[in-house]
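Progress note, sequence design subtask.
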């Protein structure tokens, strides 16, 4: 996930830097809001990794929700960027933090600690990129 998000973020930042992508005022506002929301959800690694796994997973899912809600309000390159980022993060939707107990898990799997970290780092990179887009 992180590798894909890094590639997307690098491409978006390059397009803005080279003036191939000029964000509108509305895009700036939405990107800034999404960046702030993502920053509030996924804290610094040394703090965030101390949380219980169920809370870490909840934060990752909430980050995906932020992307989905923001995506619903934009068009053009920002929508394409956010859509690609959300797609890269879809493995999170198949994760579970709790033991399966009785009954089916609907295909949900327990991720490794490295997968949690990868997802969280991807959100941090995405947040950094959205913040950079709004200051360019």
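Output:
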């Amino acid at each position: 996930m992180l590798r894909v998000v890094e590639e997307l973020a690098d491409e978006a930042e390059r397009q803005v830097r080279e003036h191939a992508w000029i964000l509108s005022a509305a895009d700036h506002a939405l990107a800034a809001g999404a960046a702030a929301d993502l920053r509030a959800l996924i804290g610094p690694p040394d703090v965030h990794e101390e949380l219980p796994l169920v809370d870490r997973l909840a934060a990752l899912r909430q980050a995906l929700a932020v992307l989905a809600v923001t995506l619903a309000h934009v068009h053009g390159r920002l929508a394409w960027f956010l859509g690609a980022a959300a797609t890269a993060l879809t493995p999170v939707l198949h994760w579970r933090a709790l033991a399966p107990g009785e009954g089916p898990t609907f295909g949900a799997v327990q991720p490794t600690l490295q997968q949690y970290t990868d997802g969280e780092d991807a959100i941090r990179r995405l947040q950094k990129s959205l913040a950079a887009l709004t200051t360019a």
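The chain is about 70% helix and 0% strand. Work on this subtask will continue into the next period as scheduled.
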